Amino acid sequence: MPTLKITVGERTRLDQRTRQRISAAQEGAALDDVQPVLNVGSYAELSRLLSPTNLELLEAITEHEPASIRDAAEVVDRDYKQVHRNLSELEDIGIIDFDGGGAGQAKKPQLAYDGLEIDLPFAGPGGNADTAHS
């Protein structure tokens, strides 16, 4: 599984990188460094994504491999409805997937990536955020 790269509010730089990769692909260049990218619009969105409760859920899924949402709720000792809501949000943005969930089947939460890489470019005095990475 690849690592998901998360960026914040840098749509211009992301669009520029995408255009460069399309041009390279059209010229026949090999694109072996494909890494999925999730761009969130603000630090508030990033904070919500990386809330302690969501991180605890991701860690619990990794360590305990719960067979269902209910099992995940028991592992983190939280209410089923809250865990269901958090897992649904994480599914909506592609951080987790559910296995099963058909008629009468439990939905098993699974991580979609090996890890998360956070890229926070900070603009320097000249306002160029393209050269500053954390």
TrEMBL record:
Protein name: Winged helix-turn-helix transcriptional regulator
InterPro entries reported for this sequence: WH-like_DNA-bd_sf, WH_DNA-bd_sf
Pfam families in the cross-refs: HVO_A0114
SUPFAM superfamilies hit by this protein: Winged helix' DNA-binding domain (SSF46785)
Taxonomy, superkingdom: Archaea
